[in-house]
Structure formats: C-alpha cells, structure tokens
Design brief:
Distance between the termini: 44 Å
Structural class: alpha/beta
Shape: globular
Oligomer: single chain
Largest sheet: 7 strands, mixed
CATH architecture of the domain at 146-286: 3-Layer(aba) Sandwich
Strand order of the largest sheet: 6-5-4-7-8-11-10
Domain C-methyltransferase: 244-403
CATH class of the domain at 146-286: Alpha Beta
Number of strands: 17
Number of helices: 13
Domain Methyltransferase putative zinc binding: 3-64
Keywords: Methyltransferase, Transferase
Helix content: 25-40%
GO molecular function: methyltransferase activity
CATH superfamily of the domain at 146-286: Vaccinia Virus protein VP39
Pfam family, one: Methyltransf_14
Order of helices and strands: EEEHHEHEHEHEHEHEHEEHHEHEEHEHEE
Length: 408
C-alpha cells in the first residue's frame, strides 16, 4: 500500500465503516440508473508509528478527477481563516514582494488570492482541472499536477523554490507520504518554512468525528506521527498550533534540519507530552472507537425513523464529503432525508453518491419549510445556523449527529 510510511503489515483495525462510494463522486440524473462502485472504508493503525491509514482501494488520480466538486471559496468561515493566516504569516516571517509563496492543493485560489493582493509572488499546485481553472481566472499561476519529488525538482529547475510552502488539508490526501514529504524538502529554500494544516487524530477519536473518514483521506495524524515522518526526510517541526478548523486541527511549522535560525517552540514539547499523556503512543488508545461510531449511527437512525412515523419532513444542509460518509454508513436514502441544500452551484442539480439524495439550492429550503434541517458540515455549524436562522419562522429545528445527536 503506497500510503504506508513504515511499510509495516497492518493488522489492527481502528474502525470499519463498511462499503461506500467516494464521497465527492456526485451523480448526474442520467447516472442514477447506472451501476455505482463501492469501496471498503476501513482504517488500520500501525503498531510502530501509530499512523492511522486506509487501504488504498481507490487511487488518487481517480479521486481527484477533472469534475472534482469541492471549491474552498464557498465557506465564508474558511475564507476568514485564510485571510487571518495570511496577515499573521506575512508579519511573523517578514514576507514581501521578493518572497515566493507556493501552495500545494491550492484549489480555487481561496488562499493565494490574499497573498496576491499583497503583491507577493504566488504559485498554486492543484491536480483538479475544475478548481485550478477557477484559480487561473483569478490571475493565480497554477500548475495542474500532483506534488511529489518529480514536481519539486521542476520547481527547483524553474527557480521557484519557496520561502513559504503551504499545504492546507492536503497531507491526509497523499497516497505516498514519503515521496510527498521528500518533495517538500526539495522545493523549500534553505531558510524557507513549511506550514501545513490537517485534522488532529486526537479530536477525531475523542469527538467521534468518524464522518471525516473517506476515501480521499489516506492517512490520519497525531503530532507524534507527523513529527517522525518529517524528521525522516530532513525537516524539523519547530512550532505547532492547535486550531479550531474542521473540528480541531493542527498547524505545523517545518524548516530544514540544517536551519539553526529558528528556535524550537515550547509548544512542540507540550503537545508531544499531551498526546503521550493521553496514550496516543499505545494501541489501547485506538480501541473502542467502533462502539462510539455505532452509537451515533443508531441514535441518528432512530431519530429519522421517528420523524418519518410522525409525518415530519427532514432535509439537510451542506453536501459535504463528511455528510456522505455519515449517510452511507447509516444506509440513509431520500425516503428519510428529502433533499440537501448547498451554496455551491457546482453541486446543485446533482445527487449524493450512494444515497442518491438530490442537491438543491437554498431556495428549496424556503419553499419546502422542512421541520428539521440536518447540518452535515458541523465544523461550520455556527455559520450555517446564522445563515438559515429564518427556519425558526416556521418552527424549524436544527440537527447535528456528531459528536452526538443534538436537536435545537
């Protein structure tokens, strides 16, 4: 399995979510009567590195297709987060018009646009054609390729090594971790820095965030594990921050091991000590997750079945990948959830993979006035609750299933 960091045969199951189609493989109306391919969704934990990994049943070049439907710019919360990051990182590391900023998995230019506004040279690396073209229309130079050692050598050959190399929510998507992190080393200037953000495995385990598991995510990281991976390839983690995005993420800062200009923050030792205190360096920590996942499934299904018996209408908001994991593991179809509204026009008019629930515009919510609206992207719950506050006018209620069933 290419995504393995330590080449150890994996025998310890972290969680088994059965079979489901890839979470972003939305369907057109004409595809509804065609066969749909399902893949196993089972995670293992390495007894040596404690890296949680999926078997690579679906290849990265199939997942990140030209019709990829996730566009980062449709979340105002995420855009605000990125703008704040830009201002912070520019000030902290004194970036200017002579600096080179590169983002891996730059999507539709959601982040690089803020550096461009400050006249800082940028380069996006994005394998999906649909999102890359949107970035290019914004005037953001974007290479439509996967990142690894080969592309890193091309960056060097074209004299574009990075002063700041960014990867937001990409590390989990990488099928070959060793090649990817080795590429970071090559693409980084001698005094450059890498920042990467990714969901923290500790939060996934302790807050029942099993819906963040899908085929696009090959790996799930503790700080203990990611530190090992970067050190193997000559990169030192000198700073780490716990941030609230995606239900609790880490932002790591890396430098060349040979770079002695940047001291190691006390946050590094503190987080390592925190993870060890919780037992994340033992197999025992990773046991018992399946039972917590199953409880969410049974509670959510019981709620939906009860509303069906009562003649109530349930709809959803946010056609997010995490919602598709939840729906498919629970076996929910459109008889229990009528439709899912979403802000993105790239998803509207399509159907969710597996469940075949139609994706519509927000206007459908206003027209149908459902009794309950399930918020699938619970990580931006507050943003959505404010956006849809008008459902209170017909006594509508909100629902989330994770970390536990909540109705308000």
């Amino acid at each position: 399995m290419n995504c393995r960091f330590d080449n150890l045969s994996l025998t310890h199951v972290f969680v088994d979510l059965g079979f489901s189609p890839p979470s972003n493989s939305f369907l057109s109306a004409s595809q509804l009567n065609e066969p749909e391919v399902y893949y196993p969704l089972k995670l293992y934990v390495s007894e040596r590195t404690f890296l949680v990994q999926i078997d690579e049943y679906k290849k990265a070049n199939e997942i990140f297709s030209q019709e990829y439907v996730y566009f980062s710019s449709y979340s105002s919360f995420w855009l605000a987060h990125c703008k704040s990051y830009t201002e912070m990182i520019m000030k902290r590391f004194e970036l200017n018009a002579a600096s080179q900023v590169i983002e891996i998995a730059s999507n539709d230019g959601y982040l690089l646009q803020y550096f461009k506004e400050k006249n800082i040279p940028v380069l996006g690396i994005e394998p999906t054609l649909s999102t890359a073209q949107v970035a290019q229309r914004k005037g953001i130079p974007t290479w439509i390729e996967f990142f690894g050692t080969d592309l890193a050598k091309k960056i060097v050959a074209e004299n574009k090594q990075a002063d700041l190399l960014i990867g937001n929510n990409v590390l989990a998507h990488v099928p070959n971790l060793n090649d990817f992190v080795a590429g970071l080393k090559i693409a980084l200037k001698p005094k450059g820095i890498v920042t990467m953000e990714f969901p923290h495995l500790m939060q996934l385990n302790e807050n029942n965030q099993f819906d963040t598991i899908y085929h696009e995510h090959f790996s799930y990281f503790s700080f203990l594990t990611v530190k090992q991976i970067f050190e193997k390839h000559g990169l030192t983690l000198f700073e780490v921050e716990e941030i609230p995005t995606h239900g609790g993420s880490l932002r790591i800062y890396a430098k060349h091991a040979e770079n002695n200009d940047l001291p190691c923050s006390k946050n590094v030792d503190n987080l390592l000590a925190k993870e060890i205190a919780k037992g994340m360096n033992t197999l025992a920590y990773y046991q018992g997750f399946q039972q917590k996942v199953d409880k969410i499934k049974y509670d959510f299904l019981s709620f939906l079945l009860e509303q069906k018996k009562l003649g109530k209408k349930v709809a959803g908001y946010g056609a997010a990948a995490k919602g598709n994991t939840l729906l498919n593991y629970c076996g929910i179809k459109k008889d229990l959830i009528s439709f899912v509204a979403d802000k993105s026009p790239y998803k509207q008019g399509k159907y969710l993979p597996g469940s075949h629930i139609p994706v519509v515009s927000e206007e459908e919510l206003k027209a149908e006035k459902p009794d309950f609206v399930v918020i699938f992207p619970w990580n931006i719950q507050k943003e959505i609750e404010e956006q849809l506050s008008y459902i209170r006018s017909w006594n509508g209620k909100f629902v989330v299933a994770i970390p536990e069933l909540k109705i308000w």
